[in-house]
Write a structure and sequence with these properties.
Strand order of the largest sheet: 3-2-1-4-5-6-7
Mean pLDDT: 90
CATH architecture of the largest domain: 3-Layer(aba) Sandwich
CATH topology of the largest domain: Rossmann fold
Strand content: 5-15%
Structural class: alpha/beta
Number of helices: 18
Helix content: 40-55%
CATH class of the largest domain: Alpha Beta
CATH superfamily of the largest domain: Glycogen Phosphorylase B
Number of domains: 2
Distance between the termini: 13 Å
Low-confidence stretches: 253-257, 484-492
Length: 492
């Protein structure tokens, strides 16, 4: 009989697909018995996402990974009448459920488990139907997981809109949470995305376990609260496996063949240690001209060195395009800014190698959109942050960075003005982080502590390494589905 396979169902975003695949590879490496991965791929809705995923698959296949198989699911007619990305993805997954079921039944290997993305709760129905253990791969923080698990109870307890509440929310394991930092999905209780969030919180307790891209020492109080059932009152607490930070730190094979390092890295080579503020707003982040002008003025007045990745609007944003374009700096920046700051600043208008930049000794701070993967990369390299959230759960992440972890200096972001930041506020925050003051010094010290914590966790004998090992053994000991759809227990 063929070796058992772990079936992965990621969504198409690079921040979801790549960490899940990396986690799967860690499971293969830590298993005491041979395992394989079967990655089921839903067609990506944008050309850029499809290209990114295809490039990554080619690199994996070129590396000769014989224990990883990619299976493309058929196209479906994607929904057009949705209220947000959460509803869009959830409905798209629902449309793929028949193809998912057929793909699993048709496998020639026994199935150890189905691991689904945070958005793929409809796939839990397939796992129950086929008696396959199902695990959720949670791409955000344990703090965000606690909010999701707690949301059904909050829905019953809070009778007004969250922003109308007096006082803060009680989330086990966290400081009191101001309603103003909650994800946008929770701010309109009549919206479909709110209903999706609460529904997802209810469904997660059905999973055999939840795999979280964090470390036990990174979020100890929150993880303890989840394990003790304080986030799922009245329902069983699912098993949680903190296996992070899950980061793909090895450069692609084609990058190793390049003769010259990236221009941004060459520029950093000429800067003093820990002197440069790095600004980057994620793979989907772009800024309108008025905000770019405010950033330029704030950076210029701060007097500090900077490397700013500035992207332009998507080429066809009117048709729903989401991927930023290469920026036209002459159009976006104030006249004379580049010339006046050329001795201490670089504005880069294209994609940039974020991990390599954060790893550089010249970088001393990071203005981030607070995507969880970017946060983990910054912590891995011990770089303190200025949090500038733009959407999704990023305002909540920013709150935890400042008030729970202590690795960031606060930045006042006007959420009611599309997350606008004034030049004077950016100047103040940059000086606080980079200027040697008490607030910045504490954030830097804490970021360095977290760097040590993260690296110890994934090292041999570390907490995340042990969690991966425990997960792989649990997968081997669970139910498997044979190609003829009979359910047996592994090892019998």
């Amino acid at each position: 009989m063929a070796n058992p396979t772990i079936v992965l169902l990621p969504v198409w975003g690079a921040g979801h697909f790549m960490p899940m695949l990396q986690a799967g590879k860690q499971l293969l490496a830590s298993s005491s018995r041979p395992l394989s991965l079967t990655v089921l791929l839903m067609p990506a809705p944008t050309a850029q996402s499809a290209s990114d995923i295809s490039d990554h698959i080619r690199r994996e296949e070129g590396a000769g990974a014989v224990d990883i198989r990619f299976h493309h699911l058929p196209d479906v007619k994607l929904p057009t009448d949705h209220s947000g990305v959460e509803e869009f993805i959830s409905r798209a997954v629902q449309l793929h459920v028949p193809h998912l079921r057929a793909a699993i039944i048709g496998l020639t290997s026994p199935v150890a488990a189905l691991v689904v993305d945070i958005f793929c709760t409809p796939a839990l129905d397939v796992s129950r139907e086929l008696a396959v253990p199902a695990y959720v791969y949670f791409t955000s923080s344990a703090a965000m997981l606690s909010l999701l698990l707690r949301s059904p109870a909050l829905d019953d307890e809070v009778v007004v809109e969250f922003e109308e509440m007096e006082g803060a929310l009680d989330l086990p394991g966290l400081p009191p949470v101001p309603p103003s930092v909650l994800p946008g999905t929770l701010l309109e209780r009549k919206s479909p995305t709110y209903k999706w969030f609460v529904y997802t919180g209810r469904r997660y307790v059905e999973a055999s376990g939840i795999i979280v891209n964090t470390a036990a020492e990174l979020e100890p109080r929150v993880l303890a609260a989840i394990a003790e059932g304080r986030c799922t009152r009245g329902a069983r607490a699912p098993g949680v496996y903190p296996i992070g930070p899950v980061l793909a730190l090895t450069p692609p094979a084609h990058a190793e063949a390049e003769e010259q390092p990236h221009e941004c890295l060459r520029w950093l080579d000429a800067q003093p240690p820990a002197s440069v503020l790095f600004l980057c707003f994620g793979s989907k982040g772009f800024l309108p001209k008025p905000q770019a002008h405010e950033i330029a003025r704030g950076l210029e007045r701060s007097g500090h060195r900077f490397l700013w990745v500035l992207r332009g609007l998507p080429v066809d944003i009117s048709r729903g395009a989401q991927d930023p374009s290469d920026a036209n700096l002459a159009e976006l920046l104030p006249e004379g800014f580049l010339g006046e700051t050329k001795e201490r600043g670089l504005v880069w208008p294209k994609r940039a190698p974020q991990k390599e930049i954060l790893a550089h000794a010249s970088v001393g701070g990071f203005v981030t959109h607070c995507g969880w993967n970017s946060i983990l990369e910054s912590l891995w390299f011990g770089v303190p942050m200025l949090p500038w959230p733009l959407g999704a759960e990023q305002h909540f992440n920013a709150f935890t960075l400042v008030c729970d972890m202590g690795v960031a200096v606060p930045l006042k972001v006007d959420r009611k003005r599309d997350n606008f930041v004034e030049a004077a506020e950016l100047e103040r925050a940059v000086r606080s982080l980079m200027g040697g003051g008490e607030e910045g010094r504490k954030a830097k010290e804490k970021a360095m502590e977290m760097m040590v914590v993260c690296r110890k966790a994934v090292d041999h004998g570390g907490s995340s390494c042990a969690s991966v090992k425990r997960l792989s053994e649990d997968l081997l000991g669970g139910a498997v589905v044979l190609p003829n759809c009979l359910v047996i227990t592994a090892g019998k």
